[in-house]
Amino acid sequence: MHIEVVANIGEARSEEFLHKTVVVVDVLRATSTIITALSNGSRGIVPVETVVKAKELYREGDLLGGERFCKKIPGFDFGNSPLEYTREAVQDRRIILTTTNGTRGIQKALKASHVLAGALMNGRACADAAIQLGRDTVILCAGTQDVFSLEDGLCAGLIMHEIIQKLGAEHVQANDFGMAMHSAYLTCKHRLLDHLLSCSNGRKMKKSGFLADIILCAQANISESVPILENDHMVLLPR
Ligand SMILES: O=C(O)[C@H](CS(=O)(=O)O)OP(=O)(O)O
């Protein structure tokens, strides 16, 4: 399998995603939130780029979720904290979600054969899904406003590590950035929370009062759920 890790959305070339699986990674916090909401029984998440589009797609019974620059959008039901998306709040509900980077990353990946949502919490499950889908794989780190974010790179390294463990190093070729992220993950894997707290997004989120989100999002392989895009909805990949 060929794996290409892309450092941020600004570097993504969508025409190169044709016939591939793209795993969009936004550890803090959009893809961690999507995984949590679907695990808690949401019947589907519609990721959109703009607030206007979210309001346009809204139908009675839906929930609106999202933020801009860490702040909940006025009039929306939720912000972008995975802890808000409890079973009680989201079971059987469709959610229209717009976030600063993550949902933009998903939109950018639409030309791919398969679009998955990955985070540290489902890294291993995502690697298994990518293997099963049988295509070359792009791991698209969402980053923050077209700048690389370390937490996404570490997650790309985790997914690569799991794929290499399963397929064997001789069957995996990665681009140079992917190789660097794999090494970074191996160096940091026993202290992921410390790294998430000290990287730039982690510091910003802690300052904004989201320490509990960082603690949750830093936990590797706690979820078997893999969101996949079907038409315009993210739903759970059947296992
Ligand atoms: O709310 C979040 O988690 C971030 C906000 S920001 O872009 O880091 O200011 O959005 P996300 O789309 O999840 O990266």
UniProtKB/TrEMBL annotation:
It comes from the Bacteria. One of its GO terms (molecular function) is magnesium ion binding. Its EC number is 3.1.3.71. The keyword Magnesium applies. It catalyses: (2R)-O-phospho-3-sulfolactate + H2O = (2R)-3-sulfolactate + phosphate. Keywords: Hydrolase, Magnesium. Its cofactor is Mg(2+). Belongs to the ComB family. PANTHER family: 2-PHOSPHOSULFOLACTATE PHOSPHATASE-RELATED. This is Probable 2-phosphosulfolactate phosphatase. It comes from Paenibacillus whitsoniae.
